[in-house]
Design a protein that fits this description.
The chain is mostly beta strands. 0% of the residues lie in helices and 42% in strands. It contains no helices and 4 strands. Strands 2-1-3-4 form a 4-stranded antiparallel beta sheet, with no helix packed on it. It is globular and about 35 Å long. β1 and β2 form a beta hairpin.
Length: 71
């Protein structure tokens, strides 16, 4: 169950190894990190809770943050 704000299209995340994805728990600890090479990502098994997804464009340095709620 993914709830992300703001909503983005998968086409916004070009799978060209220019974006880094980091998954953090509510305490700010890194749970998972990867370089995006496809337009989808298989997240590890997560317990119920609130997580944050950070996507960083390696070329521009721009960072976009999402909230992920595991129900």
């Amino acid at each position: 169950d993914l709830h992300s704000f703001p909503t983005r299209r998968s086409s916004d995340l070009e799978p060209d190894n220019k974006n880094e994805l980091t998954l953090l728990n509510a305490a700010g600890n890194i749970i998972f990190a990867t370089t995006l090479s496809t337009s989808s990502v298989e997240l590890p098994s997560l317990v119920t809770g609130i997580y944050f997804i950070r996507i960083k464009d390696k070329l521009s340095g721009d960072i976009t943050n999402f909230r992920y709620v595991k129900i």
